[in-house]
Please model this.
Amino acid sequence: MSEAAGNKSSRASQRLRNIRKNSISRRIYSAAYEEHENSNSEDDEQDDEKADCKDPEEIFQNIQIQKEIISNIRCRPWPMRQKLKALRQAKEIVLKYEGRLTRTRGYQAAGAEMWKKFGRLVCNITVLFIPWEMRIKKIESHFGSGVASYFIFLRWMFGINIVLTIMTGAFVILPELLAGTPFGSVPSKTIPAGHVASAQDLDTIWSLGGYLQYSVMFYGYYGNERKIGRAGYRLPLAYFMVGMAVFAYSFIILLRKMAKNSRLSMASASDENYTFCWKIFCAWDYLIGNPEAAESKTAAVINSIREAILEEQVKKKDRSLPVIISLRILANILVLLSLAGSIYIIYFVVDRSQELERTKAELSLWEKNEVSVVVSLITMIAPSVFELVAQLEMLHPRTTLRFQLARVLVLYLGNLYSLIIALLDKVNSMSMTDNSNDTGTAFLATRALPEEESLSTIVPEIRLRQNSSFGSEDNKTKPLIKYNRTALFDYNILSQQDQCWETYVGQEMLKLSIIDMLFTVGSILLIDFIRGLFVRFLSDCWCWDLESKFPEYGEFKIAENVLHLIYNQGMIWMGAFFSPCLPAFNVLKLIGLMYLRSWAVLTCNVPHQQVFRASRSNNFYLAMTLFMLFLCMLPTVFAIARYRPSPSCGPFSGQDKIYDIISETIVNDFPAWFNTMMSYVTSPVVALPALLLLLNPGGLQGAASGHHRGKASSSRANKLPEDVHPDGPFRKCVRPLHYSPAAGAPQMILGRRVHTARYILVNEREPRKRLIRSVTRIPRHYKADETRGAVELLPRNLKRYAVHAGHRTNPQLHVSEEEEDEDDLEQVTFSRSPRPHSLSDLHQPTRFYIGDSKDSRILIGKDVAQMQYEDEDSEPQRERADPGSSHAQWNSKGLAPTQQGAGAHVKWKTKHKAEQSLTESDSASIASSSDQQNSSTDQYIQVIHTKDKCLKTSNENLSRSKSRVSIELNAAEVNELVCSNV
Amino acid sequence: MKLISKKKCKFLSTYAQSVFRYLANSSDPGWKQTQDFRRLDPGPHHGAVVSQQSYRVHQKFLQLADEVIDYKTQHITSEQVSSIPAIKVNPFKDQICKVFSRNEQGLFSFEDFLEMISTFSENASLAVKIDYAFRIYDLNGNNYIDQEDIRHIIFRLTNGSMDEADISTLTHYILYNSFLSE
Model:
């Protein structure tokens, strides 16, 4: 490792030399810029001459700069013509010099160009294949991005379901169809004799019985042979793996999407600060292209502004109204009551249906479907009830919406949960009958039909009890016995086929999904379409204005609809293990929904009046989906883990638990050593530390991102995650390093995350004494510039440091620690001082540190020049009204000579001051983004970063093992670093 | 007097992402503008490979222009640009035209038009969007968004149905807001 580090450091030192030459290339750069300004090509040729140097390093630098221009040109608010010109010129320069370095580089470039073109072509083609793109665009242009976000979400869901369908289809359904035992060959795949006659009846099919029940759609159909077909496909294993993969895939894709979105929506964090700015400057949806939509948007804007003003006034008055409070309490009680009621109703209905199934021979259509119908009805009606109740509360519209969403989500979850719990309850009773089946048929009869008289001989105690309880019924024995007979017959058939509780759960889920689909279609037609027709055609001959008063047109409620989609997906997740065709069904359902909804929206809906800022970059939907996924996974996983698979059907029949398939496969099909290894790995000795290890980076990342978020005010910050906040950790690196030679001990920088190595690079060229001085100065200076994020980060570093320091007895270290404490105090006071943090402010420390050393001084000059450049080009057409820029100019002129001849302490100090002022003026003068500048400094940093990581890893190793040996090694490494640089 | 200068409009960055989506998006499917300026690189001017996107912009440009003489010198008027549906209903359409046309008479060359489309595209960089957002909201063109500008913005957004008292309160709040944020 040390070798690698040495290698890298030598490369870095080479880099350093490049930096020195940068000033020359900088000249080219700025001159090239002037050319853009003046549109005069003579300058260009002059530049070419200037740039025509022999040194390949310089050419390389130049090329790099030109490449930067090329890559950054998009981010500049120049007129298109200017951009084109600058771009063409930069490309020419690159082309001209790139070939001169090596021949292969030219080929590389050509290849890259080809590749880029190919990528573009592919990109263009894929755009054509995005489903419903045009439809969504049309909606977007009518209703704005809010409504469109629903459809985009729908499409995204559709994509997920496609993948799920492919997974289940390819690995479970197809193998079973192709290689599994055919229909009718084994009992579990045959329709029982008593049911054959009715197997094709419509109501049997409708309730997913008959042929459908004994098909690949449900769990029960799959065979339990370990291998099927000639190839020996392990279907049970595949079934289990796919079932788990469905969840895993959904999780991963959701989290990835959320991560992507959170990168986009940094802005939302600072919402609250700029309420009014938001309301005004972001009010207009630039996508609206329809006069009607524009009108309603205007109305919405007025509403939201009025509300905001009212809210502000209310905030000032800060009055408390007992009436409102009591109303809210009442509303919440009502909501809770309706929630509890809905849960109770569902439980009751499931219970009743079980009872009916057990006791009644012929079930009517209603009785077969009442569970799903009731559940769907509740999901339809309850949200409107909540909405009515919410009017009592008189909250702010946005809060109302949030409450509403939360309530609806709870309702949906309650529905699903009470349903699944009721189903599992039934499963429970089923598996109990299975158990009794094993012990003896008589007991089964007891459980199933306690009224049966035959059991009295076998179990006298029960008979006794029954005599007492059913004694009153004895006088009407005759009808009862008859009734019992049929029930007994029925039950015998049931006990054969219906023991497949997995199939039963799958059937219920699929049924629920179908009924839900019907209700959705019905509600769209009834509530939206018929109402729209009614309002439009009867408004002329009605007593009041239908369009603006009572029925109006249906609003498109984005949030509720999204929630419904999520609920729908929840059902799929819940049932997918028991019914592999559920994702496929959902795909069809979503396609239908897409067309129906988009048609309904375009024909008979008006946009929602309330502002619900749901853009694509909104994680709100996704967070809810994740929540749903998690909660829907629980019952399924619980059922898998807890219940015994049905003994007579399904791929896992005969096993004790479903997941036994894994251990069985490992035991039987893997070599013995793997088996023993697995037993070690799964033992707590390994598992616990592994878990901790997994948790660790997550926590670190979370902290880092939190810190990051605090600082970053624009999305640009994402590009340079480590460079944005170099101050905190960097400051820390300073001291250990400079003590290290003095103490003669390996003062490794434990847990320093950023830029450690860079500092080595920079400082070792300075005489030690001065170094100390500058080092003690740097933090002071920097604290002023640090934002709060750095303070947050600090304690962590300090702690680590302390731990390490405890290990060795180094008096100097303690001193440094105390110093650090002082620094912290100071820092706190400093960080409170109000300072404007412009975008460029974030990057100053980087520049400063590089500028700290003698050899990179040119870089400062460069930066100043660049700053000038920045300042000019950010407003190419306007006059510079800023005093700051002239200040910066002055600095660049005044500084350059001093820097060149630096060496003495005094000069060093003055330079410091100058730089300080420079940074200040800089922050004042550059407000528009300075991407180019950043990336130019990054260039050097990036190279060093790699080494950084190396150091970091070694540090981690060190801290973990804490062995003397590795410390020695590290010492050697550091020394090597230093030496190679000198 | 309180003003919002360009330097101070940091808050603009917080939402520019959401404000300027691609305006250039109408029911025309090909109209999905990918901004990528680099796609132009050989450029329509060289007659070489023209990427699909810029080609579509060009088509649209020609479609907006009444009679085509020569697309290099062809200009379209602000009125013609305003006939794009999304701009037509925009309360700031005149300002948009003013900002993007580099010509005093409000004529758009193809490059201006392309610039406009690309700025409104989804993929345009935040910096560009902020810059143009600022310019659009800087109605009186003094490089600041001042009280007058804000009043006009509110006036336009609400279609004039806001009373004067409310507008002045709101203006006050906005300026107060943006000063708090420093």
